[in-house]
Amino acid sequence: MDNQYYEKIKPESLINLFSQAPVALAMLMGKDFVIESANEQILQIWGKDDSVIGLPLVEALPEIKDQAFPDILLEVYETGKPFRGYKVSCFLERKGVLGEYFFDFVYSPVYDNANQIIGVSVVATEVTSQVKSEEQLADSELRFKNLILNADYSIAIYRGLDMIVELANDKMLRTWGKDRSVIGMPLEKAVPELEGQPFIDLLRKVYTTGETYSATEDRADLIVDGKLQTYFYNFSYKPIRNNRNEVYAILNMAVNVTDMVNSRKKLQEKSEKLRLSEAKYKGLSEAMPQIVWTSAANGNFSYLNERAKEYFDITDDFIGAKNFSIFIHPEDLPKVEKVWKKAVKKKSHYEIEYRAKNKSGEYIWLLTRAVPDLDEDGNVNQWIGTSIDINELKILQAQKDTFLGIASHELKTPLTSIKLYAQVLDRMLTKQGDSKTAEYAKKMDEQVVKLTSLIGDLLDVTKINSGKIQLNEDNFNIAELVDEIVEEQQLTSRHKITVEKNSVGTVYADKHRVSQVITNFLTNAVKYSPNADEVIVRSENDGANMIFSVRDFGLGIPDNKKDKVFEQYYRVSGEEQSTIPGLGLGLFIAAQIIERSNGKIWVESTLGKGSTFFFSLPLSEREN
Ligand code: ADP
């Protein structure tokens, strides 16, 4: 400003300028910095009214006494060098409350006409809200950074088109298999194995188009722990914009879903394998000429092969709703239910023959076998079964039984005559003193006895098979019966038969049939212990049952054959066994007799050491 003009300006105009300027202004005069003038703005900043005019500054604002301002003022006053402060913190008492405020200000020396410094002028602007918001911004940036660093996701920020890794949290570094040294590098250098993979191009596209890219279960190959490994990520690339809305960086967030993807893949592979194996077994079952089915644990069908549907003339409607029982002959049903219940209880396989109605309404013999499919806890998932038509076999068996029945019956009469003639012959020859020839007649008689017993067995079997065996039950004392039979057997046996215990009461059964069982046990014990000379007989009473047993020290029976010896025509094979004659019927008949008398039959045996055959019968209630 030209001095000439300056001198011409009316002082009021200057005062006007001073008081109306939108900045805070004050004139502090002398070394005590007496407030010569202060405009409205500065009074507001100080939180004072114009009563402070005329007071030294530290008196007007005692709170600044220990702050830097008095010293700075003095410095300006003494040196003549103006002082500029930016965003300087100042504690001021406004309305009785001390608070921190920020200012941009200039202290300039005030000269008199003689060019002497006589005071300091103050020009100030309050920037408190700007500083506070800057602080807040810095705070929120810090919080944001911490959030990223501690996040559960892998997060990184890439700046510029070169994708400089500005920030990467530990998770992201682990994902890359890298350390902090990659921060500040372009992503291509930081993670060189990304070359040839689509990620860098995708990032550039996001950068140039400003559009977010996200992907789920995307594959990335990364070198971790020194080897290239395949991972899967759910990730996004989000553009970060400046206040001019320009993209300047990209936020990359990623979640490693490799385990999930791998386990799902495994599951898919497994279920595919399962599907294939199911298809295989289904094909197999469809190719079979037998009836193949599966059922739920409760017995209701869950699958039927074509043969089954054709055989019974049923459709898939049957599945889930019905079971075999509706086809089974009413006479066979109780037997089937018993076997089924036992199998369910034991969770073990079963095998049973019964008559079932086919599509023409005929009852046909079926042999059904089923095995349970158990889950990890041992519960039945399902039953898998097959049924085969054994009708022909059953007819042949029946024919064979009829033939055996007739043949043995027809043989009995001539045999009785032969026996009679042999006995007469024996007596006559003995009388004539021809004891040598008489011996032959005796031997003939013995052989006839054996033959009669064989024929008796055959007849019994045919009776059992046709359900015609009759039990004439009555109460009898079993101990007496045991004594009688042992005595009789001892007469013809080389073995010493010892009755170790014989203390039982009365049973209600067919005495003749029970004696047949006891005799069979005894003859077998002798027959199958050719190298031993002792047989032990016991009969005990456990309070509810009598338990009879015959122990021998002979060949014994292999473990897996023990149950089979009670089956029709079953004989244990073996070198020694084959030299011993028999039809394999005695124990079958014995088992049938005992079971029909509500008793139990079983064997304990050690191969090469001997066997003990047992049966038990309930004691008569009347005797107890
Ligand atoms: P059989 O003696 O006529 O063959 P069984 O029905 O009485 O017929 O016996 C069936 C099979 O059981 C016999 O062939 C034999 O292999 C076996 N067995 C029976 N009793 C004994 C025994 N005491 N010791 C060893 N094996 C025996």
UniProtKB/TrEMBL annotation:
Keyword match Kinase: yes
Catalyzed reactions: ATP + protein L-histidine = ADP + protein N-phospho-L-histidine
Domain PAC per the UniProt entry, residue ranges: 350-402
Domain of life: Bacteria
Span of domain PAS: 277-347
Main EC class the enzyme belongs to: transferase
NCBIfam families in the record: sensory_box
Protein name: histidine kinase
Species: Chryseobacterium suipulveris
